[in-house]
Amino acid sequence: MFKKLLPDPFLMLLLVTVATASFFPAQGMWAELVGWGANLAVVLLFFFHGAKLERSAVLAGLTHWRLHILIMAFTFVLFPLLGIFLAGLFPYLISAELWTGVLFLCALPSTVQSSIAFVSIAGGNIPSAIAAASASQILGVFLTPLLVSWLTSNTNDDNSSTIQGILQVGLLIILPFLVGQLFRPWIAEFVHRHKKSINYSDRTTIILAVYTAFSAAVLEGIWDRISSYELTLLTGICCFLLMILLVITRLVSRAFGFTLEDEIVIVFCGTKKSLVQGAPMAKVLFAGPQAGLILLPIMIFHQIQLMVCAWLAKRYAKLSTEVSSGEN
């Protein structure tokens, strides 16, 4: 249990990446090469996302429509509304760029691997978790850019850059995703056989996206623009968002009469946010030095959700065992 609460090894790699960008930021020709490499990695990432997701599993799981509508409402409606509420209530608590990062975090889809893993540990409805997480990822490819455009319309004065970002999303994210889905019947076996290697490519994409974003931010003086006090406040905001969503998802699922297995799916799939999709999307949507600051909230939220959900999954697992024993 203690190991579950330790920092995620991948998060430690991200911190090393941020440190590397801080001391050795990509400049000149090297920056251009890394940028092209990051774009190529984004294309491959979403191509393989499209190839990996089984349409049959998603469509089969969608028959449990009440559960999935509720999860999507938490992910793409309640989360963004909470972000808007906090940003409107405390506009000067943190910088405008960090609030944009918080709003971007709120617009992201749920995770797939970790959501399903935690549902499994907790004794929840695994088929529904697979369907919900997969559907969230698919919808996120289309909904997140639109939500980000709407959520940041008040903080982004350059409408042309927003339109350009959405066009880039179409070219670098949506198109490869659709092509991956189209070619799935022919490459599904290859993707399954090399699943481990493809997962490493996911992480490589995130590392490249974080490095390029923070390199540009460092060259613009990111560490002179954010204090330890602001980082502490940002961490508190991320904790608040996760805690309030965990409470609401649990209360609402019980109010609607869902079983414990379905409640577990709603709680874990409805409160998690995807760093795997977040880092590449931030690179595409927020070109320039601001992308580094905008990535901070999702990086912080990522580690918090892993630690809290690891503890919560153990609690649910114990409760599931007690319920099963009682029924027998």
Question: Would you kindly provide a written description of the structure presented here, covering whatever features stand out?
Answer:
With 328 residues, this protein is mainly alpha-helical. Helix content is 84%, strand content 0%. It contains 15 helices and no strands.
Proportion of helical residues: over 70%
Portion in strands: under 5%
Largest sheet: none
User: Helices and strands, in N-to-C order?
Assistant: HHHHHHHHHHHHHHH
Number of helices: 15
Shape: globular
Kindly report the average pLDDT value: 80
Q: What distance lies between the first and last C-alpha atoms, to the nearest angstrom?
A: 28 Å
Tell me the structural class.
mainly alpha
CA radius of gyration is: 19 Å
Unreliable segments (pLDDT under 50, ≥5 consecutive)? Answer: 157-161
Counting DSSP E segments of at least 2 residues, the number of strands comes to 0
